[in-house]
Amino acid sequence: MIELRGVGKVFGHGGRRVTALHDVSLHVPQGEVFGVLGRSGAGKSTLLRCANLLERPTTGEVRMAGQDLLSLSPGELRQARQGIGMIFQHFNLFASRTVEGNVAYPLEVMGLSREAIRARVAELLSRVGLSDKARAYPAQLSGGQKQRVGIARALAPRPRVLLSDEATSALDPETTRSVLALLKDLQQQLGLALLLITHQLEVVKALCGSVAVLEGGRLVEQGRVQELLATPESRLRALCFPPLSPQEAAVGQRVELSLTDAHARSPLISTLARRFDVDVLLLEGAVERVGGARVGRLLVELHGAPGAIADARTFLRDQGLTAGEAAHG
Ligand SMILES: Nc1ncnc2c1ncn2[C@@H]1O[C@H](COP(=O)(O)OP(=O)(O)OP(=O)(O)O)[C@@H](O)[C@H]1O
Q1: Could you report the per-residue pLDDT of 287-329, keeping only the tens digit for each?
Q2: How many of the other CB atoms lie within 10 Å of CB of 311?
Q3: Which of 134, 208, 276, 325 has CA atoms 20 to 30 A from the CA of 59?
Q4: Which residue in 285, 272, 287, 282 sits closest to 317, CA to CA?
Q5: What is the domain extent for residue 96?
Q6: pTM for this model (two decimals)
Q7: What sequence ranges are listed for the domain ABC transporter (predicted)?
Q8: Are residues 146 and 78 part of one domain?
């Protein structure tokens, strides 16, 4: 479990102060993947560095398993840090060490026996699918393979919490998908609390149960991914389905539909056609599957008698489908 309570971070002195984080609070229970989504400069790296105390927050508390990390002595903090694994965007591998040497490193620091290290490294490389690369050096690996080594190394000390700093930002889309699938499997098998920061919406959709949106150092929205995507006015939904182009609307005919899973499961178009005697033209939009549920945004045009169109629009509004209607009315 990792918890941030009212964390703030100010860099610099006097007139050259930058407030990178304002009053950030979040909670990641064991077994949960929590994403922090933000643009460049939003404060993501600072947040992650504050979470493992590479950077000391100016205000607030950082708790792991109920323990306030800021109150620990340097020795106690070193001990506590063994419970926190880190995965980096640029992998941060030792170029002069082999794959197995990289994964072994944190175990050597912990003072484990050679035998114990050998067994643990072999187990980890098998978990991440790199047993055949044990003797290779990082320069001989692809980006995806390097990140798998990074993940194996982060897991070596059996952490309860994993922090991921843009783990897939340097990878191509297909490799990103395979690394995300690996992270998801490992997180589920090991029951880790995973806090990841990313600017990639894809990562949130593929992996996260909960998400917070970071803007200008503040968490401006947070909640369950499914619930936020089902909320028409949420920021996450707006990021996922950017507003559709209004085009030259025939007045009153064009309607933007915000679909939740329940809507996507109902025979919406045929219901409109049968019940209201209108034809429905699909103009633009998308329906996506996120964590087993469907969500979407569609721009449609209704054709038929004015009264029928009005009735169909009332029906759509009553079903909670037309949050974006005003923009195209
Ligand atoms: N050591 C520092 N000293 C002064 N200002 C800093 C320091 N580190 C970060 N900042 C400032 O804090 C703000 C947030 O930076 P941060 O690196 O956390 O953002 P980010 O969301 O991770 O961005 P990116 O995705 O581009 O890495 C920025 O305005 C940055 O200039």
Answers
A1: 888 877 888 888 899 999 999 999 999 999 998 888 655 444 3
A2: 17
A3: 208
A4: 272
A5: 2-232
A6: 0.85
A7: 2-241
A8: yes
